[in-house]
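Bench notes, afternoon.
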Amino acid sequence: MILTNMLCETYHAARIFEPDYTEMLKKRIQACHREVFEVFRDGYGLIHEFAREDGCFAEHLLCQHINPGHALEDMWFQWEAAEILGLDVYCGKIKETVLRTLELGWDKEYGGILHFVPCDGPYTAYGAEAMKDEPQMKLVLDDWGSKLWWVHSEALYTTLLMYLNTRDGAFLSWFERVLDYTFRVFPSPNRAVREWIQIRARDGTPQDKVVALPVKDPYHIMRSVLLIIELLERQVKQHE
């Protein structure tokens, strides 16, 4: 995932400063692009956080959960990779994964996108006892219901990108749903503060604790907002 993004950014820089490296970088991008879909994506269109060395998914929660924020972020990485490579072999899978991730990750009771979700849907802690001391397992068990601003900012960019490239109304519907939740829940109710509360409990109430990393949200959010602005500016120029 991150290698795909890093290589794509390096490729864009190399086209300007080191053109001789572009073909090598395209080969590396293609290898990462393929691995995401052939190793980490299951038959239901979901991107797992972990896979075994043999490429299979172990039957416990550590390997049988998704991080919707990561999966949605990864799909715009992969869409960019496909554009660089001039390949559409995985474009159908990208679209399917975005929709499957949103359908599974959306909290049907409170709204918003959950931090972690078991691949089979209902939240159960199967296999947790045997791996209770594993740091990632602790995070999944403790924070699965958290609603994070960065997750929703990535979802906004990914759904808008997919809609503008496919004109599939399902992506526009998801963009509007995520947009409504994001601006209804995350801004501080005190308008004088002019700040957003980046970590919310499952029911949308503020949480005063660190989830994942203390400074993760500002990076994701600023990047996503800037990318959305650039995407919309390109659309305006195309129709001038």
